[in-house]
Amino acid sequence: MQRRIDEIVAEMDVPLHCRTEFSTQEEEQLRAQGSTDYFLSSGDKIRFFFEKGVFDKQGNFLVPPEKSINKIGHALHALDPVFRCVTHSHKVQALARSLGLQMPVVVQSMYIFKQPHFGGEVAPHQDASFLYTEPLGRVLGLWIALEDAMLENGCLWFIPGSHTGGVSRRMVRTPAGSVPGTSFLGSEPIRDNSLFVPTPVLRGALVLIHGEVVHKSEQNLSDRSRQAYTFHLMEAAGTIWSPDNWPSQGRGHVHSWVKLRATNTSALLNCLASTGKPRLSSRDFLMLVSLQTGGHEVVAW
Fold first, then answer.
1. Distance CA 34, CA 178 (A)
2. Contact assessment for residue 76 and residue 112, using Cβ atoms and an 8 Å cutoff
């Protein structure tokens, strides 16, 4: 996956007016992502979003372009063959079955860079704030560490048990033609930092993230990146996807939902040949669930 993402980045061509700085701070989110169609219409595309402070006033890069990217989203799982075969691998299918999912669909995917020295923090949030369903509890994040994710380079932090408290806020689309194109309902409460538990994992680990669990990551001030591939599954059986979600089914925006399906084994092996099988410890983290499958660490929140 890292080799493939290097190829995608090398071919990156983002017009000046589409260069969007990604942020998880509410006001910056509404001003940057919420006011540009480049972000709002990215649900069925492969698009690039950048760290804060990497452009001059004219939109030119102040750092090498490959070092400026915050993330790539949101349809790698649907449009790129390497990421498609990883997303739909037999291991992912087996995991979905073991969790009792009857009709899992992939609703979005992201490649996260967490650049060295200035990779932006991710503020405390719940994924269901952006991927809202009725009933709740139908969205699951799968977060694959492509590099060691440690305290020093911005590992994930979680509040154990926070998935039982409902959703505190939602990002929703505003009426067509409105500026910005999104707004928030509710607000993110101020949370005691002592509630968060760090989740350091080694390269190759899979972290399962409940849609309502509160999580965050700190800014990466180290000299090592913390790359990860993440995608979200939704149980489509008996689930209503909110029409107000920013990855919208309507208003002319085509979603990139893909039913989790079988992948040709030889194609999968070819896709994964360059990554090898990481050697991971069986360290027992302070988690809700921790188990070992096929030599790869799986951590569930």
1. 10
2. no
* Among the listed residues 107, 141, 264, the one whose alpha carbon sits nearest the alpha carbon of residue 213: 141
Assigned architecture for domain 73-271: Sandwich (2.60)
Token pair for residue 129? 């704030």
**DSSP symbols for 47-84:** EEEE-TT-B-TTS-BSS-GGGTEEEEEE-HHHH-HHHH
The identity of residue 231, as a single letter, is F
User: Are the CB atoms for 206 and 86 separated by under 8 Å?
Assistant: no
Closest to 72 in 3D by CA, of 52, 40, 91, 50: 50
Q: List pLDDT tens digits, range 17-61.
A: 788 776 766 665 555 554 468 888 899 999 999 999 999 988 899
Q: What is the pairing mode between strands 182-186 and 169-173?
A: antiparallel
**pTM, two decimal places:** 0.84
For 187, other C-beta atoms within 10 Å of its C-beta total 9
